[in-house]
């Protein structure tokens, strides 16, 4: 038994006439009659009493009509649900992010647009260091990641698109020896402990990526921290300095000072990470939003 058999049966039951039902279904009458008879044979008895003028339902046909309509409605609901999920209108999207995405404002704007367009889709967010985001996406634990370029995972199955940049500034205690400078040359950071938002470890490329951005300059002393707030808290306490997006200076944090680098062109990249072959409609919808406006 197929859905078309149910549609044919319901049309005949509602029209009470094979000719009119055939016109409604856009099939020829002999085909319709053959399909209905095949259905009756499968069920083991007649569904209609046929006369020269009308077609009437048998008792079994009346009972079957209720269930046939219900089955067709459920099939249509299943189809609609799948299509809505493919469009991202329902379902969920799991988003990993680093503090830079929040500080630049990109993550908040993208999630706001996504929620306005797809209010029935669920958004889950987790702060994760860059490497952990890429690993979680590859493992199927995350759908989309908003990651700085420093320390991001590279993998053939992982897609990375640049969606924003921001100049880097130095974050330090307002009592730090460099806090009275208008700008801070990169070379003056060589003696400082650099606070880095990353997991650390042999596989972590954050520091190497950062040194490359700084033209090969030190610092050589680095401390890895697991969250953006940890970095800012340690910097405000005078326990190191950090390089953060310029927008961070818009946040009033007691004891924390921000100074531009003397050298121009030192920027933080913001990437959106995703699987190369994404099947989740909600994830694809968020990616489309993220890629539609490059900061």
TrEMBL record:
Pfam families: HTH_1, LysR_substrate. One of its GO terms (cellular component) is protein-DNA complex. InterPro entries: LysR_HTH_N, LysR_subst-bd, WH-like_DNA-bd_sf, WH_DNA-bd_sf. Signal peptide: none annotated. Residues 1-58 form the HTH lysR-type domain. One of its GO terms (molecular function) is DNA-binding transcription factor activity. This is Putative LysR family transcriptional regulator. Keywords: Activator, DNA-binding, Transcription, Transcription regulation. Belongs to the LysR transcriptional regulatory family.
């Amino acid at each position: 038994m197929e859905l078309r058999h149910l549609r044919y049966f319901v049309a005949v039951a509602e029209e009470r006439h094979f000719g009119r039902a055939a016109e409604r279904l856009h099939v020829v009458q002999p085909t319709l009659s053959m399909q209905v008879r095949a259905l009756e044979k499968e069920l083991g008895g007649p569904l209609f009493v046929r006369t020269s003028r009308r077609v009437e339902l048998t008792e079994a046909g009346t009972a079957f009509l209720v269930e046939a309509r219900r089955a067709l409605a459920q099939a249509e609901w299943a189809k609609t649900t799948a299509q809505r999920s493919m469009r991202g209108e329902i379902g969920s999207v799991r988003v990993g992010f680093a503090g830079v995405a929040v500080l630049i404002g990109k993550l908040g704007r993208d999630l706001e647009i996504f929620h306005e367009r797809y209010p029935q889709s669920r958004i889950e967010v987790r702060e994760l260091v860059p490497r952990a985001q890429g690993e979680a996406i590859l493992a199927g634990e995350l759908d989309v990641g908003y990651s700085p370029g420093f320390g991001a995972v590279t993998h053939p199955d992982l897609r990375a698109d640049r969606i924003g940049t921001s100049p880097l500034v130095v974050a330090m205690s307002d009592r730090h020896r460099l806090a009275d400078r208008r700008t801070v040359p990169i070379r003056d950071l060589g003696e400082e402990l650099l606070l880095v938002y990353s997991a650390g470890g042999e596989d972590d490329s954050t520091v190497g990526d950062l040194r490359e951005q700084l033209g090969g300059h030190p610092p050589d002393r680095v401390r890895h921290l697991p969250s953006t707030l940890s970095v800012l808290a340690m910097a405000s306490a005078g326990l190191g300095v950090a390089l953060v997006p310029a927008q961070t200076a818009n946040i009033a944090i007691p004891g924390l000072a921000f100074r531009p680098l003397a050298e121009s062109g030192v920027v933080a990249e913001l990437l959106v990470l995703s699987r190369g072959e994404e099947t989740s409609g909600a994830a694809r919808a968020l990616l489309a939003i993220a890629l539609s406006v490059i900061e």
